[in-house]
Design goal:
- It is a single chain.
- With 300 residues, this protein is mostly helical.
- It folds into two domains: 61 residues; 220 residues, MetI-like (MetI-like fold, Orthogonal Bundle).
- 78% of the residues lie in helices and 1% in strands.
- The protein is built from 14 helices and two strands; from the N terminus they run H-H-H-H-H-H-H-H-H-H-H-H-H-E-E-H.
- The protein has a two-stranded antiparallel sheet with strand order 1-2.
- A hairpin with a 2-residue loop joins strand 1 and strand 2.
């Protein structure tokens, strides 16, 4: 046995102990990760679970302070029946659907071409303009709703869903454009060059090459625009006071709270029904949403 073999045999126990140590560290890291995920799941799932439990209780059971708030003694669907049988609630739902679909269409019609121009055409000031577009998204709603209220009022769109259609893109277009800029920038430059050599115009390049390739990013931006439009609260609270023009987010609260009287069962049922469409969208399109948000991290 030569010296090298003897040294390797002597170092083998050290390597074995090091591998065992790494394995134990990995096991502890996994346990810590699962514990953190479990804690986060409890924190985030507790409110909707409590809402569901409350929506299944009778008014008498909710008023009985001796019962646990986390258990249902006599489950009932009367609150859901009252909400779904209320024409006013169905009007809230219809208003939210109309506003959301129109805003999503406007957002994608503006943000996709804008992102393509800012990320691929490379004109003077494109980088600065792209940063400025994103910075507008960072301005909070509470600073914008007063000047926007004056603009919407001057156009005669107060107490109208079209006023919401006008102002919601100020929330959705900047961030969706920023998402698409990152995704378009990750597409290889060779696609541009090959298309230009073949005589394609910029519009043909966008529609026939970049839109199919960037479909996960477009879906991510669409999901974001849908969520913001559906769940917006500050703007409709400021611009809408008539029940027939209210979206779901403020209609449920404004019509089910009368002074100091709260219809808790119907409020919880309405809130859960209002949260259902975004949940369904995320469940079916979550993979595309993650892919679209992370695409800008790499290029090539």
């Amino acid at each position: 046995m030569d010296a090298a073999t003897s040294a390797a045999n002597r170092d083998f126990p050290k390597l074995y102990r090091r591998a065992g140590s790494l394995s134990r560290e990995r096991a502890w890291a996994l346990r810590a990760a699962y514990a953190s995920l479990g804690f986060a799941a409890v924190i985030f799932l507790a409110p909707p679970v409590y809402m569901l439990i409350t929506s299944l209780k009778t008014n008498a059971e909710m008023a009985d302070q001796s019962l646990s708030p986390w258990f249902v003694r006599e489950p009932t669907l009367e609150h859901y029946a009252a909400i779904l049988g209320n024409p006013l609630f169905l009007g809230f739902f219809r208003n939210s659907i109309i506003v959301t679909l129109i805003v999503v269409a406007i957002t994608m019609a503006v943000s996709v071409p804008a992102a393509f121009a800012l990320s691929r055409m490379r004109f003077w000031g494109s980088t600065t303009l792209a940063t400025g577009v994103f910075l507008t998204y960072l301005v909070p709603d509470t600073l914008l709703f007063i000047p926007l209220y004056q603009i919407v009022g001057s156009l005669g769109l107060l107490n109208s869903i079209w006023g919401l259609v006008l102002v919601y893109p100020t929330l959705t277009v900047p961030f969706c454009t920023w998402i698409m800029i990152g995704y378009f920038a990750s597409i290889p430059k060779e696609l541009d060059e090959a298309a230009l050599i073949d005589g394609a115009s910029w519009l043909q390049m966008l529609l026939r090459i970049f839109v199919p390739v960037a479909l996960p990013g477009i879906i991510a931006a669409t999901i974001f625009a849908f969520t913001v439009s559906w769940a917006a609260f500050v703007y409709p609270t400021a611009f809408i006071t008539k029940p027939e023009a209210m979206p779901l987010t403020i209609g449920v609260v404004s019509q089910l709270v009368r002074g100091d009287t709260f219809a808790w069962g119907q409020i919880m049922a309405g809130a859960l029904l209002a949260a259902l469409p975004p949940v369904v969208v995320y469940v079916f399109l979550l993979d595309y949403y993650i892919a679209g948000l992370t695409a800008g991290a790499t290029k090539g």
